[in-house]
Amino acid sequence: MTDKLRVGDYMTGKVITVSPDDTVMDVIKLTRETGHDGFPVTRDGKVEGYISSLDMLLCESDELIKNVMSKNLIVAHPSMEINEVARVIFRLGVSKLPVVDDSGVLVGIITNSDVIRSQIERADPQKVWKLKKTLETLHNISITVTRGEVDINDLKPTQSKVFADELEGRIYELKKGLAEPIIVIRKPSNVLILADGHHRVVAAKRIGVKKIDAYILELSKEIPLGMERSARDAGLKTLDDIEILDYAKHPLIEITERLMMRESKGSLEEIEKKSVESG
């Protein structure tokens, strides 16, 4: 695990491209089929330009893309830090950048959503290292951290309840690819204990996702964990045992709404005050 988040770790590798010899109508059809509003223009794998919906406005349908595409192209490199590419995206006011290797060959595309995802995930390594240190200190064991996908049906939950409103948010994030990895503890017996990410896992199960990205803390020896005992006492064996609270709001949602109401109330009071002052 590294502190430096790189473009290559978050970019999308499979990119839909168009040819300089395609026509405007070809790309309009592709836009309708894919829902994308722009495409890198490549020849023999190398990027020659970028065509967006705006570039095609007022163009004849049989106009060639090479005549209307943007040629002054800003691209990213897989080794660039996410923070650097975030600044570029922000300053240019664009939503995505093609990613090319040293020879100019297109290897991916990085979007503002990928940047947001990287920042969401960035919080998790701190939790991982904190949990690792705590377990090593408490149980005098060594722990190795790996990253990979786990089957959600193999996970043993340790949290008895999740909030329905937060669950809906997690479902949205999963569908948009904006979910951070969960944290799992793997025992030598191959038991997988879900330490963090219960909303994400329940959301994944609801929409039929079988596997999910995870930080995995590999224990060096078989030891009983306190969270296992608590889960057993709460009757938690599978994800189906987790209760979904649809009558209470997740604390984060409640705080956000409360702040919004406070701001709204403040605005109303200000309007009323100005109204009184103006007579």
From TrEMBL:
InterPro entries: CBS_dom (IPR000644), CBS_dom_sf (IPR046342), Diverse_CBS-Domain (IPR051257), ParB/Sulfiredoxin_sf (IPR036086), ParB_N (IPR003115), UCP004699_CBS/ParB (IPR016427). The keyword Ligase does not apply. CDD domains: CBS_pair_ParBc_assoc. It comes from the Archaea. Keywords: Amino-acid biosynthesis, CBS domain, Methionine biosynthesis. Residues 11-67, 69-125 form the CBS domain. GO terms for biological process: methionine biosynthetic process. This is CBS domain-containing protein. It comes from Methanooceanicella nereidis. The lineage of its organism: Archaea, Methanobacteriati, Methanobacteriota, Stenosarchaea group, Methanomicrobia.
